[in-house]
Design brief:
single chain, about 170 residues, alpha+beta, 4-stranded antiparallel β-sheet, 3-stranded antiparallel β-sheet, 4 helices, about 30% strand
Length: about 170
């Protein structure tokens, strides 16, 4: 396995090979379970890649994609007042446990901070994801039910120093 220090991040270009890979992963990881076809997930990924207020990013080690993450305006119906959201953080099974997910989460928080947001939100399924995100500095806000399953909405306060620039 390549060194984690070789991990590079980039925003995805619409209709690129990276967008296609991300769409396939996100459809298998999340979309299909929510009733989305691969074509619908591809459309969403291409939309994110073109949006000014949202982004789709990939992590690469030596030109090989090893993970993806989304920052979107809203990821949970009924919670549109909270924005933006970290969504769809995905690392293939073969690359898990190496810190790539933590790096992707940090890259997403950095992106949101550069967009002048004070906080970033996510919702995670109850279980091992909650302690994982807490270890990355996320705070629990509210326990909720989504399609009969237990989740928690979490918040990550963003560094104020990166939101303000003085001339």
């Amino acid at each position: 396995m390549a060194e984690l220090s070789d991990c590079k991040f980039s925003e995805v270009v619409p209709f690129s090979a990276e967008a296609s890979v991300a769409a396939k992963w996100l459809n298998v990881g999340f979309g299909a379970d929510m009733g989305y076809s691969l074509a619908e997930t591809e459309d969403w990924c291409n939309h994110l890649a073109q949006a000014e207020s949202e982004t789709l990013m990939v992590a690469k080690i030596r030109h090989r994609i090893v993970g993806t993450v989304v920052v979107c305006e809203c990821d949970l119906e009924g919670y549109e007042h909270l924005t933006p959201w970290l969504s769809s953080l995905f690392v293939p099974v073969a690359d898990r446990g190496n810190g790539i997910g933590a790096l992707l989460a940090r890259e997403a928080t950095d992106w949101a901070s550069r967009q002048n947001h004070a906080d970033l939100y996510l919702y995670a399924k109850m279980g091992k994801l909650i302690p994982y995100y807490k270890s990355l500095g996320w705070l629990g806000m509210e326990d909720i039910q989504v399609h009969g399953e237990a989740f928690q909405i979490m918040k990550k306060p963003l560094a104020p120093s990166s939101r303000y620039e003085f001339s």
